[in-house]
Amino acid sequence: MARNKGPLRAECVIFAAEPASETLPLAVEWGVITGPSMQTLLNEILDEVRPLIGKGKVADYIPALADVPAQQLGIAVYGNDGSYHCAGDARVPFSVQSISKVFSLVQAIGHSGEAIWERLGHEPSGQPFNSLVQLEFERGRPRNPFINAGALVICDINQSRFAAPTLSMRDFVRRLSANPHIAIDTRVADSEYQFRARNAAMAYLMQSFGNFHNDVETVLRSYFSYCALQMSCLDLARAFCFLANDGFCKHSGEQILSRRQTQQVNSIMATSGLYDEAGNFAYRVGLPGKSGVGGGIVAIVPGQFTVCVWSPELNAAGNSYAGMAALELLSSRIGWSVF
């Protein structure tokens, strides 16, 4: 995706929906913000979307997530220059859930490169994220790494690579986020493992087609531990910033992915990162993104920023109800859409 090298002005944006307040005369050029501050904009956006709390539903099929207070709402923006802005509950850790699939994919690409695509694809599924029907029809080869079957294959690949995959993932995320205190909530991981039947069925089905190489129960333990990572909006925005910077993590000094690999990951996020709502997210927000049923959504502004928003209540597609609205307002007012 090409970087936006000219100023992006909100007054030139045509809104899909009428905003609750006047468009701010905000301009962005290579991460430099003029006009009203980003902090003011974030505060105003949270005020506008807060009335949406109560319209969604906190994920209750994972018992440990059902107790999360629904009124929490936060947003963080992290620039490629290392500057950041937070509003609301942006520093409160929450369960990242499927957002972790990006981290495990990046790990797999880092050590195995193009070879991973021999075992899964990079096409949208058009089916529920935990579909068994499609998986059997396509002989155990998942459509993409962000549906559950694809994420399990990626975990299986990492299981073959690392002696302690869970610790490797935790340490990787700590480096990316510059937060040595990132931890796994074992209560959430154990809760998900207890209700593992469908994920186990997918893994055993793939094993029957020769596309699963390690012990299923061991891989499931790792998979649920990845999902149970506890991170804040700021942690996630900082951890994902390499995807907005051609694969380079400035604060750790690491080239995490090549520029081409970064483009590939962002493209899969754009087409498959929000369950069955990737098209709607592209229409409303216009950025590569990845969501999780913990209520978080991360979005990438290539060449400029990373954004993370969190609100635990989900819509019918399993994405944050207020979070989607907040990202739509932010993207449209600054002109961040890549389309």
Summarize the topology.
Elements: E1 8-9, E2 27-29, E3 32-34, H1 38-49, E4 57-58, E5 74-79, E6 84-88, E7 94-95, H2 100-112, H3 133-137, H4 148-161, H5 165-177, E8 183-184, H6 186-194, H7 197-208, H8 216-227, E9 229-231, H9 233-239, E10 248-249, E11 254-255, H10 259-272, H11 278-284, E12 289-291, E13 296-301, E14 305-310, E15 313-314, H12 321-334
Antiparallel strand pairs: 1-2, 2-3, 4-15, 5-6, 5-14, 7-9, 8-9, 10-11, 12-13, 13-14
Helix pairs in contact: 1-12, 2-4, 4-7, 4-8, 5-8, 5-9, 6-8, 10-11
Which keywords apply here?
339 residues; alpha+beta; Beta-lactamase; 2 domains; five-stranded antiparallel sheet; three-stranded antiparallel sheet; 12 helices; 15 strands; 39% helix; globular; disordered N terminus
According to CATH, the homologous superfamily of the largest domain is DD-peptidase/beta-lactamase superfamily
Read across the widest sheet, the strand sequence of neighbours is: 6-5-14-13-12
Q: Mind summarizing the main beta sheet?
A: 5 strands, antiparallel
C-alpha termini separation: 10 Å
- Structural class call reads alpha+beta
Number of domains: 2
Model regions low in confidence, pLDDT < 50 over at least 5 residues: 1-35
Helix content: 25-40%
Strand content: 5-15%
Mean pLDDT figure: 90
Write down the CATH topology of the largest domain.
Beta-lactamase
Assembly category? single chain
As a whole number of angstroms, the C-alpha radius of gyration is 19 Å
Helix and strand string, N-terminal first?
A: EEEHEEEEHHHHEHHHEHEEHHEEEEH
- Tally of individual helices: 12
The CATH class designation of the largest domain is: Alpha Beta
Give the tally of β-strands: 15
- The geometry reads as globular
- Which architecture name of the largest domain does CATH use? 3-Layer(aba) Sandwich
